[in-house]
Amino acid sequence: MLKITISRMKALIIPTFSFSPMSKRAIPLASNFFSLASKSNLFSNLQNPVSYFPLKPSMISLPSNFPIQTRCVHSKSSLSSSSGEIHVIVGPMFAGKTTTLLHRVQAEINDGRNVAIIKSNKDNRYGLDSVVTHDGVKLPCCALPNLSSFKQSFGQDAYDQLDVIGIDEAQFFGDLYDFCREVADHDGKTVIVAGLDGDYLRRNFGSVLDIIPLADSVTKLSARCEICGKRAFFTLRKTEETQTELIGGADVYMPVCRQHYVSGQVAVEAARMVLESQKAQCGSCP
Q: pTM for the complete prediction?
């Protein structure tokens, strides 16, 4: 009869694993980190593109009272090179989406991770070489027409060294879903996305809502209603333009609560009808 001891049976049934602690220290960049990126037209608007990336704490223009998020948005599991993450920040205009994005980017930089920020080249209100909040806080960025061109424009070697990619004004990127899925699922990078979840008609704006099923976390921000001061979740357009994409600031948009969104829309529609009526009457005049 075959005799097997209890300890031997345990050894057969329960495999023995050995774990080694994973280092959180970022991999140092090679000296030619931006050798490919510096040759790209992506940085044609920057006087010294090599000095802009990777982002460092010393180059960030932050006021002394700027709140810094000390807890990184990634978990311990995300330290594995094979595991990426997607974090989405949404809300109406003037809710602090870009500010929140910069908070999280700052936390990642402080943690020693290599970061790049992308924004749409459609938004040139504050220039194309920086992401700028309404309060004037800014970070260098890459302005692109689409996200699919980022890897080629940035350079493969430089891209491989990145840990985190921030995307501002994400509603302007039609390829947002495919980019985020590939970068997080296949390339193991953390993606932090900030954008409008709805347009001035409270309808889906771009592809921001499409990436919610992909996200590890979703942050819904609110602003302050400019009429009553209550929490504002909607954006009211104050002008008569009707196209979905109309880039502007406080001269065009205002954050409002539900009550004043509804009443404001009625007022705006009435004003539009009056203007259209006046134009029609003027056109029929001899």
A: 0.67
